[in-house]
């Protein structure tokens, strides 16, 4: 059974913007956990996407549910991941 959505209002707004269910759930739960002002400020230790291999980028895009990833170039994957 999937974990419940911790911020249903944000989850629904993200879905309305066209995000996948898994991406919307991850963002909504992170916002509820850390406070929405903390979004985008966690981590910071990962290599720049330009340093990742295309396979690593593809795997991350798959985790986030980015559609069309199998047809994307490395640069396209980087752009999609940053959006």
From TrEMBL:
Transmembrane segments: none annotated. This is Rho termination factor, N-terminal domain. GO terms for biological process: DNA-templated transcription termination. It comes from the Bacteria. InterPro entries: DUF7218 (IPR055642), Rho-like_N (IPR011112), Rho_N_sf (IPR036269). Residues 53-81 form the Rho termination factor-like N-terminal domain.
